[in-house]
Specification:
The structure holds 3 protein chains of 3 kinds.
Chain A (H helix, E strand, L loop, with lengths): L18 E3 L9 H9 L7 E6 L5 E4 L3
Antiparallel strand pairs in A: 1-2, 2-3
Chain B lengths: L1 H9 L2 H20 E3 L7 H9 L5 H48 L3 H8 L4 H30 L1 H14 L8 H7 L3 H7 L6 H14 L3 H13 L3 H26 L19 H35 L2 H16 L6 H10 L1 H10 L6 H13 L4 H11 L1 H29 L4
Helix pairs in contact in B: 4-5, 4-6, 4-11, 6-11, 6-13, 8-9, 9-18, 10-12, 11-12, 11-16, 11-17, 12-17, 13-15, 14-15, 15-16, 16-17, 17-19, 18-19
Chain C lengths: L9 E5 L6 H9 L16 E4 L7 E4 L11 H12 L2 E9 L3 H11 L6 E6 L1 H6 L2 E3 L1 H8 L3 E3 L8 H7 L14 H17 L7 H9 L3 H11 L11 H11 L5
Parallel strand pairs in C: 1-3, 1-4, 4-5, 5-7
Antiparallel strand pairs in C: 2-3
Helix pairs in contact in C: 2-9, 7-8, 7-10
Classes of the chains: A alpha+beta, B mainly alpha, C alpha/beta.
Chain lengths: 64, 421, 250
């Protein structure tokens, strides 16, 4: 998901403060959750910033 | 048409349509928005970050809880209730009203109905206004402040890990916290949870183990009045938490389904606006009083009727093996449990009334059992509304015996192990 | 509450959770509702008479993150949309989160109801350095757009002033041509067999294809009394089915 190296990592492994591009949701996500996430502004090829990983992943969907 | 929908779902049409809407929205919003660059994050943003911080989050939460306890438990339940109940009602209003009624009303039956032992005024209204009202007001004020500041969604983040143990995601903390104010209202709020399984588990836990503010106040007041306040209160709290977790674990196992991971939005935090808080609290109080006062009066009337019909002694006798034998309480406590069926804080008050006759163990056992009862008739009705009659009755059928079971076990354990200081 | 079934006098407040619908509702009706600063507190539809127009009934709905509806409170909102005799929709949006607001607008414009957009909390947006070019947005969308701060009370008069003149907007977007064909075909079927007195068939079609359970239920119900022999099934339907069975576009 890193824009520079084209590597793909699960979101939980991204370090704090990094801005990344969402490559995909993956098959394990409930369809209901996928819609929720889309409604919050997450979509493929859209970027987001990771704010926190503990106790939960907190992100800021990028604003254009 | 149904077939059409079936195929669409497989082709993921909904997601694609949603995606196009998002993109159109993106383009449009980008064309009309201007952003001024901000040099430093707002204070509110900083606070918002600290509150969910992995290290700072929990201490902040505990500090919050302590503050709320001071405000609701100490100021509300002890100071305000003391003022209202002892000084105002018992000191001035009740004697005055009793005199008035006995003089003005010729029919002794009616007089007793109004101001007797189970009088509509002396028990029902006194209880509602002197005991419940100050506690509930302080709770709703505190809750309103937390709400308006934007703290509550962050609470779901902090609670998420813990709640995962009982098969819920952090979202469920909101109805539960609200349940500490009023379980009936909280049961309705479970609609924010996304899966029926989560709703069922949360409603069950609300009914079983979450003491509403009125009850909390009574429990705190009563156990605080016994001189080993700190130890007893702590013991009770620990017990409740344990019971809560255990029942949650059990419930999570027994009810089929998966847990949905938490996805929530954190709105910006802000300084609570006094006007908002007062408005919310006022509205909630109004809702609460309209629900509660008629029920108290009804409950009091039922007690009055049972007493008059001579049924009360019979119930006391019938309950004796359970209440005295198993729970180790004096037989009169049966009356409190009957009241407890109507509203558990009603029952708790009944126990409160006989506090001076109870040993510390009895006080704790009584309070534990009563706390585990279903909260009140109103919440039962809400359960039926939300989950249907069958499920609601099943829950009741599980909860009531469970309450007695736990109470009895604690009776045995405490008598054997605990030597009150 | 409606004595005459054909009278449209309901004004619905819709929008994402936590945008200030309930505060606005309180301002417009004086009725108490449970307002709070966390998403998801309104769980039922509340109705009250509008202060500014005694004929009108205002409805506060649970917040919808997105449509089609998934949770119970979202379904309550869709039900209100289906069952009320709506004169006008007021979408309450978060000024500092315009993108998300417009995602919902995109669907609401297809419903064929007069629509007004109230961009609320614009004080918070300003505090974050975000300014929205409201006239430009209004022009693009073709509907009145107002900046409001419901908690403070500003913009309310302008909002109520814009309601009488509200008109149904044009659709905000055209979907991909394949989808558009499906939508058109479904809409045609709906218009023929289960027309809604106030909602446009196109909007219902989009919701239905999106998998909204309330709309599906509503349509299924309407269809029963209109059961027709196979010959009446529009060719467009079968066409629709074939299209949708094909894999989604990349």
């Amino acid at each position: 998901m890193s824009p520079k190296h084209e590597a793909r990592l699960p979101l939980a492994f991204i370090s704090l403060g990094t801005e990344v591009r969402l490559a995909g949701f993956g098959d394990e996500i409930d369809p209901l959750q996928r819609e929720q996430l889309t409604a919050y502004g997450l979509a493929e090829s859209r970027s987001l910033t990771v704010l926190q990983q503990r106790p939960m992943t907190v992100i800021n969907p990028a604003i254009k | 048409m149904r077939r059409l929908a079936g195929e669409n779902a497989e082709g993921d049409l909904p997601a694609l349509l949603a995606r196009e809407r998002t993109e159109a929205a993106d383009t449009l919003s980008a064309s009309v928005i201007q952003r001024a660059p901000r040099s430093s994050p707002l204070l509110a943003q900083r606070v918002g970050q600290y509150v969910v911080h992995p290290a700072w989050g929990m201490p902040i939460l505990l500090a919050m809880l302590y503050l709320v306890y001071q405000f609701v438990g100490v100021f509300g339940a002890t100071v305000l209730v003391g003022l209202l109940e002892k000084d105002l009602f018992e000191g001035i209003l009740n004697p005055a009203f009793t005199d008035f009624v006995t003089a003005a009303v010729n029919i002794p039956f009616i007089a007793e109905l109004l101001v007797g032992q189970y009088g509509l005024w002396t028990m029902g209204m006194t209880y509602a206004l002197a005991l419940i009202l100050p506690i509930v007001t302080t709770f709703f004020l505190a809750f309103g402040v937390l709400e308006d500041s934007g703290y509550l969604p962050r609470l779901t983040v902090i609670a998420n890990r813990l709640f995962a143990l009982i098969g819920l995601n952090g979202r469920a903390v909101l109805p539960m916290v609200l349940g500490l104010g009023c379980v009936t209202m909280a049961t309705l709020t479970t609609r924010i949870l996304h899966s029926p399984r989560e709703r069922m588990i949360t409603i069950f836990l609300l009914a079983l183990a979450i003491p509403c503010s009125a009850q909390l106040g009574v429990v705190l007041g009563m156990l605080g009045g016994v001189s080993f306040s700190a130890v007893l209160i702590w013991a009770l709290a620990m017990v409740l938490v344990l019971v809560l977790l255990l029942s949650g674990l059990l419930a999570a196992r027994l009810i089929p389904g998966r847990r949905i991971p938490l996805v929530t939005e954190l709105p910006p935090m802000r300084l609570p606006i006094l006007g908002n808080v007062l408005k919310k609290t006022g509205g909630r109080l109004k809702w609460y009083l309209l629900e509660v006062i008629p029920l108290f009066l009804l409950g009091t009337f039922i007690m009055f009727a049972l007493d008059k019909l001579g049924a009360l002694p019979a119930i006391i006798r019938a309950g004796e093996p359970l209440v005295s034998g198993w729970l180790g309480l004096p037989p009169e406590a049966s009356a409190a449990f009957v009241m407890g069926f109507l509203r558990r804080d009603f029952g708790a008050t009944g126990l409160f009334a006989m506090a001076h006759t109870l040993s510390p163990v009895q006080a704790v056992v009584g309070m534990i059992t009563i706390t585990l009862f279903i909260p009140c008739f109103a919440s039962l009705m809400m359960m039926v509304k939300e989950q249907g009659l069958k499920i609601a009755l099943t829950m009741v059928a599980v909860i009531v015996p469970f309450a007695f079971l736990v109470g009895g076990l604690f009776n045995i354990a405490l008598r054997a192990l605990w030597v009150p200081a | 509450m409606n004595a005459d079934l054909s009278v449209t006098n309901a004004i619905l407040l819709v929008g994402q959770p936590n945008v200030g619908k309930s505060v606005l509702f309180h301002r417009l009706t004086g009725a108490y509702v449970n307002v709070s600063n966390y998403p998801g507190t309104t769980v039922e539809v509340t109705r009250a008479n509008a202060r500014f127009d005694h004929q009108a009934v205002l409805l506060d709905t649970p917040g919808i993150l997105a449509l089609p509806a998934r949770s119970d409170d979202e379904r309550a909102t869709v039900r209100a949309l289906l069952e009320e005799h709506t004169r006008c929709l007021v979408q309450v949006g978060d000024a500092k989160n315009l993108r998300r607001t417009l995602t919902l607008t995109a669907l609401l414009t297809d419903l064929g109801l007069p629509l007004v957009l109230a961009l609320n909390m614009h004080d918070e947006a300003a505090a974050r350095g975000v300014t929205v070019d409201i006239p430009a947005l209004a022009k693009e969308l073709g509907i009145p757009v107002l900046a409001t701060v419901a908690t403070g009370g500003s913009g309310i008069a302008e909002l109520t002033g814009s309601l009488p003149d509200a008109r149904a907007p044009e659709a905000m977007l055209r979907y991909d041509s394949d989808f558009e064909t499906d939508i058109a075909a479904t809409a045609a079927a709906i218009a023929r067999l289960a027309p809604h007195p106030h909602l446009a068939a196109r909007g219902l079609a989009i919701l239905f294809l999106g998998g909204d359970p309330e709309v599906a239920g509503w349509l299924a119900e309407r269809r029963r009394p209109l059961r027709r022999p196979r010959s009446f099934a529009p060719a467009g339907w079968r066409e629709c089915r074939r299209r949708s069975a094909s894999p989604p576009c990349p």
